[in-house]
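Thread: "does anyone have the structure for this chain?"

Original post by V.I.:
We have the sequence but no experimental structure in hand. Need at least a predicted one for the grant figures.
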Amino acid sequence: MQPYEMSLAEASDALRTRRLSPVELTDSVLERAGRTEPHLHAYASIDAERARDAARLAERDITAGRHRGPLHGIPMGLKDLIDVAGAATSAGSRVRDGHHAHSDSTVAARLAADGAVLVGKTHTHEFAYGLTTPQTHNAWDPARVAGGSSGGSAVAVASGAATFALGTDTGGSIRVPAALNGVVGLKPTYGLVPRHGVTSLSWSLDHVGPLTRTVEDAALVLTALTGHDPRDPASLATPRADYRPAARTELTGLRVGIPRTYYFDHTDPAVEAAVRHAIDELQALGAHLVEVDIPMTRYVQATHWGLMVPEATAYHERTLRTAPHLYQDDVRILLEAGELMTAGDYLRAQRSRTLMRDAWSRMLREVDLVAAPAVPATAVTAGQETITWPDGTTESVPDAYVRLSSPANITGVPALTVPVGQDAAGLPIGMQLLGRPLGEDVLLRVGHAYELTHPARGLAPAA
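Reply from O.Q.:
Generated one for you, tokens below.
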């Protein structure tokens, strides 16, 4: 096994016991990125010199007995919305040409304090306002979309060009690309991970979280990210915790909700079959399956767009009026549409969100988590605009990809996407686990139990 092929947990153990050096690991990841970038384009920028300097510092510290923890010396990618002092934060847009961050975001500072090594900034759909990340190609089939808007982070992890990465999630932007590229993606509870220094799309829906090879890896990264930050008004006053799940597969007594409505509607047969098979595997591990009705499904799309569109437009108000030509057409049109929405529209969406949160809270009293597809279809061909379902109805690709993920953003509940197979073309399929607020430990326990019995698929090929 080459160092770039290691999971975070495997690499961390090798670094801690000095069977591998941070410099060897970083060089391996950089060399792998050199082979994958020409056809995948996961990164907006790579700073090899900075990465090697950080790796050499980590090597000196570890050799001197100053090991900082599981992330010390581990190469990572950060979505190009996340500020790192002295580095560009382009947000995938010409609007940000020449911009360099003056200080670290909270998450970048915490990862640096834990000794993680920054390889570079990963591509995002412009200002995270999309579900495809058009600059980046799917790790398993470059002719297909990577998913978005954290597509660069997912592809970097899936291809071995980063051991882990961070993304953001406003309507599925961690979980969608994770599912389409066969990696693990975690959208934490709203407010659990501070967003100070992270470019906003929609302040009341935005989340920051990890993309990793395994559930265990996601737990290690989440442990480093959490903790209150007063600079983010939504940051929860929760103590930092260790989220690492125990290495056991027994799920006896756990109640897993299986949706009767919504999540299996208009879903590709291969996706439904893989997810239902994975649910059966949870039952075999001792979980009790309970059918549930997903509440207020007819209002999901209107509520999500009713919140996101005006909030995004408010963030971009000044630039939209002074330099609209700098935006890509798809994003500019969405931002301009936000100017047509009334205060009443926004307030009705907020009221709907409150009702939806209450309804989900009641549902989650009956079960410990819900298991469902992460996205209704695997990665579509680049440029494809619609998906036609078996009953003949059509749906736009962005609407299809966001449909199953946005409820967790509206309600703020945590959601974890785990790879559970592939379709006939070899494209990855993901299962989504949704839990109670601050119930990340339960999701990680279940996801880890599943992957202990179904080891993660290998990395995507380099070419």
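V.I.: this helps a lot. The chain has a mean pLDDT of 97.
O.Q.: and The first strand starts at residue 43 and ends at 46.
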